[in-house]
Structure formats: C-alpha cells, structure tokens
Amino acid sequence: MPDNEFQQRRARLLECFPTLQLDSFLVTHLPNVHYLTGFTGSNAMLLAAPGRDILFTDPRYTIQAAQETTCHVVTVRGPMLPKVVAAIARHKLQMLGLEAAYLPHLTHQFLREKLPLRHEFKLIAGQIEQHRMVKSASELARIERAVATNSKALDAVLKRIRPGLREMDLAAEIDYRSRREGASGPSFETIVASGVRAALPHARPTANPIEPNQLLLIDMGATREGYTSDMTRTLGIGKPSTFWKQTYRAVLESQLAAIEAIRPGVKASEPDRAARQVLEQHGLEKTFTHSTGHGLGLEIHEAPRLGRKEKTKLLEGMVVTVEPGVYLEGKGGIRIEDTVLVTRTGCRILTPTPKEWMVL
C-alpha cells in the first residue's frame, strides 16, 4: 500500500481535531494503528498530533517499523506508557483523545496520574472506525485477493468431503489449503458443523464425524495482506431430505433479496429487513437469530453492521457480508454468506463460489 495513503489517513484524522476539540490522539487499538501507519507488529501505540506522528513499539520491531511506516519510531524497552507520557509533555499537548472502546481502565488511570491537571482527556468512540468503513482502491484489491483465496481453498477440499470425516480434520484441511493459496491464516476459527450441530451459528469443529444424509455447514475466512474475507456455504451430504432442499431455497431467496437491497444511500437496516421479509413468507423468520451481515476489512467484524436498528447509510466502497440463516434446534441449520462491495449504482458480489444447492 502506498506510504502516502497512510499519511492521507492520518491527515484526515487531524482534520477532525478542531471539531473534536483535540490537539492529539493516542491510538492503542492495533487494527487502527495499522490503518493509520502501515505497521503490522503486535505491540504499538500511535501518538498522532499536527506535525508529529510518533509510533511507539518495542525492540522486536525496530527494523520492521522502519520498513513499514513513515512515522517517527520510538523503540521502548519496558513499559510503553511512561515514554508516551514524556512525549505528550515534551510537545506540550494538552487535549488528548483516547479510544473509548479499547482503553483499559489502568491505562486511563496512569495517564491521569502522570500528566499534570491542565491536561484534558476526551474519550472518542468510532472516529477511526468510521473512516475505515469506506475502503480505498488498494484495500479493495487486498480484500478481493483474500476472497479469492477463501474460495480456492474451499474448491480444493470439496472432493475430500465424505461421511465419516471428522469436523476438525476438515477444518484443518481448509486452513492448510487457505495458507497454500496465500493466506497468512484464517480470519477466524473455521466453522465446520454437521447434522444437528449446524443449528449452532458459531459451532466449533469437533471430533464428530460428518453425518450421511445430513447438512454440512462451513463458515471460513482468509486473511491475506492484512485484510479479511468471509464466506459460508451449506452442503448436502448423501441424500438430505426434501425439507432441507426447500429450506435451502428459502434461505437463498432471503440472501438474494438482501443483496438486492444494497446500494448507496440506504440504511444498513434495509438489507436486514429484506432478508427477514422473505423468511417470514416461508414461516422461518423466528429461526433467524442474528443480524444479516457486518463490515469487514482489517478486522473480520467492522462497521457497518446490517441489522434491524442500524441507521448508518451505506456508501460506495463499503464491504459487507450478507449471511441470513435458519437454525432448527435438534435438526440442523443453513447459512449462505457472500462478501459484497457497495458500488456507485448498487453492489457487486465479490465471492465467486457458487451457492446453488449442492449435494456431495
């Protein structure tokens, strides 16, 4: 990603300072640090201020930080916060913004104790995350590569799926194939659920064998170049009942209706409403127990969320998942999920994997 893109992001954050009544911002949430600086290490803080963007990290990342960011890098041996406090005092910064959603109580307490009383702190929620919702061209390219990696990994394992194969072995094979296709790892713990366990939306793979004549739900994501993807497919194994084939069609109809509702300017609640209306027509609305989708990017769950009460308006460049589902306790469940890009005139499905009813 071009260095000037990170500089532009920091500049855009600084443009918000007058409105927020800040002269500096301490960024501690690592995905936000990555977004603003390009640094991908596991330990860092960013002190953003006009004319002085300082990245604090530890000696493990001295070389890496110099390669990844144009910020001034301070390598800290031992606790990082005392060095941050010293920099705030040295540069005479007095109106410090802090990330409300990610600020540990002890960090807040330390800053208050160590900085003079004239310093003011302001807890800011969602400012950087709001900027992250609309993806740049370089981000979209990375997301599309992550999506393609995900789909190629599933294609590679489909021929290995058979009754008797353990859920955890299939999950491990998916993760292996994903890495072979270029992923740095899964975006989340791969979900493989067979038979009645498919009724658990976030089932963890177990040593249970894949059951014949039942459903198999696979929810998988790949992280590539720091960006994530997300996809769910539900397959029939052997000869599932006609009921499941009909239910699958209802879920697919619901998912397509939600996708059809995605376009710039609509509220994030609209795709969710469209999905639920279809399931209601099939008498399945009460079996859909989660929101219709979520944004993704540097994190697998980002804003905006596609849910009942969401008021955020969709914008060109947002990337969301669309994943309605039906879950019947003691019987099984179906979810179909694609990664979708909001375009200037509507949306584009990024996931290339077919989603017609498939029986193995």
What does this structure look like?
- The structure is a single chain.
- Helix content is 35%, strand content 22%.
- The chain folds into two domains: 3-132, Creatinase/prolidase N-terminal domain (Creatine Amidinohydrolase, Chain A, domain 1); 137-349, Creatine Amidinohydrolase (Alpha-Beta Complex), CATH 3.90.230.10.
- The protein is built from eleven helices and 19 strands.
- The protein is of the alpha+beta class and 360 residues long.
- The strands form six sheets. Strands 4-3-2-1-5-6 form a six-stranded mixed sheet, with helices on both faces.
- It starts with a helix and ends in an 11-residue tail after the last strand.
Principal-axes geometry comes out as elongated
Count up the helices.
11
Share of helical residues: 25-40%
Number of structural units classed as domains: 2
Strand content: 15-25%
Strand/helix succession: HHEHEEHEHEHEHHHEEEEEEHHEEEEEEE
Number of strands: 19
Mean of the pLDDT scores? 96
Structural class: alpha+beta
Largest sheet: 6 strands, mixed
CATH architecture of the largest domain: Alpha-Beta Complex
The neighbouring-strand order within the major sheet is 4-3-2-1-5-6
Question: What would you report as the Rg, rounded to the nearest angstrom?
Answer: 23 Å
The CATH topology of the largest domain turns out to be Creatine Amidinohydrolase
CATH superfamily of the largest domain: Creatinase/methionine aminopeptidase superfamily
